[in-house]
Write a sequence for this structure.
């Protein structure tokens, strides 16, 4: 009887251990929607001081030390203000470029992402791949044509076709960080995700744009129906939401319009934990770069609601701007 008693106690103990393990695994797993998909909904903040490319002075290090990260953050904060005598923005302002903000207006964060010196994770050196020869010639010619022209002005003679590297954001056609793809920059670095069983909506704070992504395997739009933000289709790869976007109209406002209509984006959204949504983007434009490249941003949960960004509200000068067009 004693043996049977201890056997029964052992079985009960084992069952309790298994139940505790299952409960712990459930609590550690990403939350799920009512239909069983990973729950990515909420407002996510993607600000970061980390630059897209690794600065050359950090070429030897994959990860910064705590001291390097703190110093690097201070360097970036100082360099972005037009009030700093050593910032490149101050130098550009001295040459006549429009630099409207000092540090008071920026909301880029106060620290680097994961103590990395770049958002780019591939290539391993954290640097953008080389331009194609044709793209290099195009950029050189554009620099020549725009010599002495600020980033918010169209290229001389190109008011309609060439709005300049800041033209899409100045005219509220595309937000400067809202994508696709999204990238940390300046301010308004928030996105809200909504989910149904067959759609995901990405509502960006900048320019208040809602990108509706079907998940039902419908075909992409015909190539003739190109759009400023491209044509997005999504699917689940395990617990990762994958969104592929093609069919861009022309320049995309990403990296100052460097990518164009041949761009293909692959965005991956993975719930790392309750407060972190990992955003990983592969950029593939064979007419701009010699190879695809990838960057990564850990988005943080924002408990506050998203407010409307009415880009041209109260802009009474817009009528005069448009009336002055040829």
């Amino acid at each position: 009887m004693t043996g049977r008693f201890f056997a029964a106690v052992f079985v009960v103990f084992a069952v309790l251990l298994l139940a505790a393990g299952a409960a712990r695994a459930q609590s550690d797993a990403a939350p799920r929607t009512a239909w069983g998909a990973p729950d990515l909904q909420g407002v996510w903040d993607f600000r970061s001081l980390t630059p897209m490319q690794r600065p050359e002075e950090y070429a030897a290090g994959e990860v910064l030390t705590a001291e390097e990260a703190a110093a690097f953050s201070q360097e970036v904060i100082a360099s972005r203000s037009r009030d700093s005598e050593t910032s490149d923005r101050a130098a550009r302002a001295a040459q006549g470029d429009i630099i409207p903000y000092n540090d008071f207006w920026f909301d880029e964060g106060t620290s680097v992402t994961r103590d990395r010196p770049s958002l780019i994770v591939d290539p391993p050196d954290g640097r953008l791949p080389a331009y194609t020869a044709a793209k290099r010639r195009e950029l050189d010619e554009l620099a020549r044509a725009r010599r002495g022209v600020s980033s918010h002005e169209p290229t001389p003679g190109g008011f309609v076709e060439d709005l300049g590297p800041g033209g899409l954001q100045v005219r509220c056609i595309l937000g400067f960080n809202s994508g696709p793809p999204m990238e940390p920059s300046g301010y308004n670095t928030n996105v809200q995700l909504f989910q149904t069983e067959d759609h995901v909506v990405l509502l960006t704070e900048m320019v208040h744009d809602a990108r509706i992504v079907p998940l039902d395997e419908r075909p992409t739009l015909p190539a003739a129906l190109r759009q400023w933000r491209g044509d997005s289709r999504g699917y689940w790869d395990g617990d990762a939401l994958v969104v592929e976007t093609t069919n861009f109209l022309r320049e995309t406002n990403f990296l100052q319009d460097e990518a164009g209509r041949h761009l293909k984006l692959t965005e991956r959204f993975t719930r790392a934990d309750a407060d972190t949504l990992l955003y990983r983007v592969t950029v593939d434009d064979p007419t701009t770069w010699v190879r695809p490249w990838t960057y990564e941003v850990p988005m943080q949960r924002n408990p506050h609601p998203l407010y409307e960004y009415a880009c041209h509200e109260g802009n009474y000068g817009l009528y005069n701007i448009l009336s002055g067009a040829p």
The mean pLDDT is 83. The beta strands are 42-45, 120-122, 190-195, 199-204, 209-214, 231-237, 240-246, 264-273, 276-284, 293-301. The longest strand covers residues 264-273. The radius of gyration is 24 Å.
